[in-house]
Design brief:
mainly beta; Jelly Rolls; 3 domains; 7-stranded antiparallel sheet; 37 strands; about 10% helix; globular
Length: about 500
């Protein structure tokens, strides 16, 4: 059994620094958004006229790029200022213009032609900042707001756009120039060619989940679709439509207003020792409180735990649950979103063998493999001599965050010691693991050496596609680790 993931990423570190960036240039992080693929079925188009191709976790989107999701796909774009747009199934979104002005802040113009998106815009930093979403019937302009946009194709072929605001306010401008301000708790609809309504109307009530933690515990709620809401440490995440993060009783409170049936994962980190405290979950249906569940917390500083809340939703909007499961201690955040068996500890090389054996014993079962950035750095340090490369690579360092795997090192080429760095992204196609170089910053090498390196890389990638011991459903890049999530072969 090849030590698939470790061998793959070690070789990518070794050879990636010498490849040209496929698009001909490296995209600056300050002028781009990074994609997280939450559910397979997300495609990207890099410029007008080009073909749509499967998008990968960590793909970068800049001016002119377009994203679309099929009936099963869902993606999340995170912009350089922290703003996010969740792209639901059957939605299409184009980055018409995206820049960081010299004064700071963000200038973003997006175009949505179908489906639903949920947007969380951070407070705009400068007067010349702007964040707008244009549809066939209106333009929505915001400054520090959470809202959703639903674009519907009517039977006559025309378009109706509904804007629903959770926090802040949205200025809606119809095609004829008429305007209306939609405020928190309101919605407004504009049909193509029609004027904006005189005022927003109350949004319809929906079932809600309310989850409260004691002071000293940060947490994030991960819904059945993989969307996140809350603050585990410092960063605030509001990817779930109609979610709100506040405080109550001295601790954090997360309210989910777009409740879907399934298992909700609550990932909790202890900033201080907790004893005798409780995590409380309440399901609030259209008729009032439907259930309350509590689980005790006894945690040491730095503990990372997960509890699961199964939720059912009736046709009448009534919520029910079997309650919070006992907290389970985790070693990394990457395994928190995976169902079933998670392989995240022990020797990384042996870990893949264990996953392979598990797949033989338990076919078609949910499973995940987790590798940390430190493990990759250590593996690279000991494995580079086995790669038999025509050049020497020193001082390899690897870091992982939501934008992918980032590696750096120095290339020893004769008397010269040249620095090199790059970024690796990953995803799946038809259940096969895909890994590619996203950006490169490296010196040029003679074509003969580059040819040798490319040949090694292509051969390794083919082997990984054939041998990786999971039917891959998604890849999760998180701070300090990568999780490959899927099912064992049937």
């Amino acid at each position: 059994m090849k030590k698939v993931l470790v061998v793959l990423l070690v070789l990518i570190v070794a050879v990636g620094a010498f490849l040209y960036f496929p698009r001909g240039e490296a995209l600056a992080a300050v002028n781009s958004a990074v994609l997280s693929v939450l559910s397979s079925g997300v495609d990207a188009q890099r410029s007008a006229g080009q073909q749509f191709e499967p998008a990968l976790d960590g793909d970068v989107f800049a001016t002119g790029d377009q994203l679309r999701a099929d009936a099963d796909g869902q993606g999340l774009l995170t912009f350089f200022d922290g703003s996010t747009v969740t792209v639901d199934p059957l939605a299409t979104l184009k980055v018409t213009s995206l820049n960081k002005p010299s004064s700071g802040g963000i200038q973003a113009l997006l175009e949505q032609t179908a489906g639903r998106t949920w947007t969380s815009v951070t407070k705009l930093a400068t007067p010349d900042s702007k964040f707008e979403i244009k549809t066939p019937s209106l333009t929505a302009t915001v400054r520090g707001t959470t809202f959703e946009i639903i674009v519907e194709i009517l039977p006559d072929g025309s378009v109706r756009t509904t804007v629903r605001v959770t926090e802040g306010e949205v200025l809606v401008t119809a095609l004829d120039g008429t305007q209306v301000i939609i405020r928190a708790g309101q919605q407004g609809a504009v049909e193509q060619g029609e004027s904006a309504p005189p005022a927003g109307e109350p949004s319809p009530p929906t079932p809600r989940l309310r989850i409260a933690a004691p002071a000293g515990a940060g947490f994030v709620v991960i819904d059945p679709r993989g969307l996140r809401c809350g603050s585990l440490t410092e960063a605030l995440e509001r990817q779930v439509p109609r979610c709100d993060v506040g405080s109550g009783g001295g601790g954090q409170v997360v309210t989910i207003g777009d409740v879907v049936a399934g298992d909700y994962q609550i990932l909790l980190a202890a900033a201080r020792a907790l004893s005798g405290a409780e995590l409380v979950a309440e399901g609030i249906g259209l008729g009032g409180s439907d259930f309350t569940s509590k689980v005790p917390l006894t945690l040491a500083v730095g503990d990372l735990v997960r509890t699961t809340l199964p939720v059912r939703v009736s046709a009448e909007g009534k919520l029910s649950s079997t309650g919070l499961t006992p907290p389970e201690k985790l070693s990394t955040v990457c395994g928190a979103e995976a169902a079933g068996r998670v392989f995240s500890s022990g020797d990384p090389a042996a870990r893949t063998d264990l996953l392979l054996r598990y797949g033989e014993e338990a076919p078609d079962q949910p499973a995940a493999l987790v590798i940390t950035s430190q493990e990759l750095t250590d593996a690279a340090a000991t494995g580079l001599q086995d790669a038999q490369l025509p050049v020497e690579l020193r001082n390899v360092a690897i870091d992982i965050d939501g934008a992918g795997v980032h590696f750096s090192g120095s290339v020893q080429l004769g008397p010269f010691d040249l620095s090199a760095r790059g970024d690796v992204i990953a995803g799946q196609r038809d259940g096969k693991l895909l890994v590619k170089i996203r950006t490169l910053d490296s010196p040029l090498l003679p074509s003969a050496i580059k040819g040798q390196i490319i040949e090694v890389l292509e051969q390794t990638l083919d082997e990984v596609a054939a041998d990786f011991p999971l039917y891959v459903q998604r890849v999760a890049f998180r701070s300090g680790c990568i999780g490959v999530i899927g099912r064992t072969p049937a």
